[in-house]
Amino acid sequence: MREHVIVSSTTDSESTARELAAQAVEARLGACAQIVGPILSVYRWDGEVHADPEWRVEIKTVADRVAPLVELIKEQHNYEVPEIIATPIEGGSAEYLEWLVKETRAG
After folding, report:
1. Which one of the record's GO molecular function terms can you name (predicted)?
2. Residue ranges of the domains in the chain?
3. Which CATH class is domain 4-104?
4. Where does residue 62 rank: exposed (0-12), middle (13-18), buried (19+ CB within 10 A)?
């Protein structure tokens, strides 16, 4: 996995998304997080198709923080099977990526 990663998840409310984002940043498992929403998610669950509003949380982090970040999201999430996807960052501003690493290290 690349050094810099975006971990994304979706939640059923803006307040839940804010809480997940804050916990990740406070624990230094992510340097920052953006919340996007509401979005409409269409999915199959228990054999039925659903369409529900959700909020996406995108957390910028580093590869060695992905596993503990995934665990934090699983522990705090209110979904039985939360969406958690890690996407490598292929490039970007060197200064921003350096800041991202610095912010995920103990202060």
Report:
1. copper ion binding
2. 4-104
3. alpha beta
4. buried
What are 2-57's pLDDT values in tens digits?
799 999 999 999 999 999 999 999 999 999 999 999 999 999 999 999 999 999 99
DSSP per-residue codes, the chain: --SEEEEEEEESSHHHHHHHHHHHHHTTS-SEEEEEEEEEEEEEETTEEEEEEEEEEEEEEEGGGHHHHHHHHHHH--SSS--EEEEE-----HHHHHHHHHHTS--
pTM for the model stands at 0.94
